[in-house]
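Name: Putative ABC transporter ATP-binding protein
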Amino acid sequence: MRFPTATGSEVRQEVSRQLSRIPQARGRFWASVVVLSIGALGSMAVPILLGRVVDVVLAGGADMVTRILWIGAGVSIAAVVSAGLNAVGFYLLSTVAERAIGNLREDMVDTALHLPTHRVEEAGSGDLLSRSTDDVAELSSSISQTLPDVTSAIFVLGATAIALIGLDPYYAVIPLLAGPAYFLSFRQYLKSAPERYANERASMAERARRMLESIHGLETLHAFSREDRAQERIGESSWRVVGNGYRARRTMMVTQVQMTIIEAGMLIAGLVMSYFAVRGGQLTIGQVTGAMMIIIRIRRPMMGIIHTLDTVNSGYASLARIVGVVHNPPARVPDCGAPAPAGRAELRDVWFRYGDDWAVRDINFNLQPGEKVALVGASGAGKSTVAALLAGLRVPDEGLVLIDDTPVTALSDSERVARLALVSQEVHVFSGTLREDLTIAKPNATDAELEQALADVGADWFETLSDGLNTIVGSRGMRLEPVQAQQLALARIHLLDPAIVLMDEATAEAGSAGAGALEDAARVVTSGRSSVVIAHRLDQAAEADLILVMDAGEVVERGTHAELLDLGGRYAQLWTAWSRGRA
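Structure predicted for Putative ABC transporter ATP-binding protein:
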């Protein structure tokens, strides 16, 4: 389920909204129209003056050289003035367009950061990454490359029509006859090209998704010797990009052939009309020379439009994909006036499904302030889904998820952060100083508070850092070991101080080189707080006030550690197997 692609009306609405945010955008636009129009008309003076050179040479006379020099000076002045006006016009247009792109890029990032986690998972991170990077870059590139060419072509064509009519109204017949042919050619192109370019962009997103999956799952691929299969899948998606790209460019090539035929017809018609105009004495040879030079100049803007249509359609496809994300951003939930955080949580008759299959069914439990609830069971039993529902990352299909007697979906971001926090096995270390990474949880924390948080979770490696809190960590600095990264994540939760902590296998690394270190850190973080722990290590479950044993999305047993052992059911079997394996 990818993110939607915006319709034409949605794109127009978003573009209009972006332009309305730019100060004096309307005034700059119309100023650029005036300046570019004058510049285009000035450029028409060049072929007209060059045509007069022919008349001067044919007429001869003692002052022929002087007259030619004056005409040459006029051509130079017209060219310089036209170029200067075009530069000013393009600058005015570019300031509006680039600011609009900048605002759109910011909206794209802002929307992506506020999207619900489940929405990103359903669409695939590759789709969002492609829209945030490839499509934004493609749009920016297409605007910077095509805006001057398309704008120049439009104004040159308008000025050409005016100049031809000024020479002889009969010349207006040529663009009038060519106009419908151009229109049909463009219409045929635009009928098929946008869909083909959209398919190309979609296949690029699929390629990005497969590459991301292969990179993230590299260790698994190595373990099962599936590198060749992963490479084959990436190759298939890459060839799909090539095929869609070829189909998109083939449409442009056919249109270009049609344009060449139309231009040949215009030249033939212009030559025939010029012949009869000179023969009838209506125009001089110099005047028809200027007219034919103007007609020949039509080729340049029209071919410019054709060449840029390729980029324009690619850019429009990218724009539609970007607007598809930002046009209807998720509504920010306002504060609902929830009571002060107390650490109570309840799942009441909760059902949730992925597609047609129920992931969890009829889940009920209460979490009282300061209590610890452990969820145990095999992989795929629904434990992580319960944690996601409790954190508000998923919305139940049936039932209620309450935090402090308030539906979790009704809580605003600030209200939810004050009440609960989710720590998973997969944590992220942001690039920057260690201080910046920690103050994500508490921006106004002092250095003493940050150091104390690290000490509380047992991050004694911090003491060996020569730069202390100024140490650069993350992808561009010191690479933290998995246990260190998890301790950093737990220190952030400790600083955040939520009423409820949800730990989704957050201490899984405790079974490796840092055995026991994360267990101690987890005890510190959950001490004095309500907590829900997805326990992969059953000694964690043994410390809980309530244990829920899950299987196939249902709670099949519940009770304390001692009660479940006496029951002799599923939990007792798991405990026996785990104890035997640990021994």
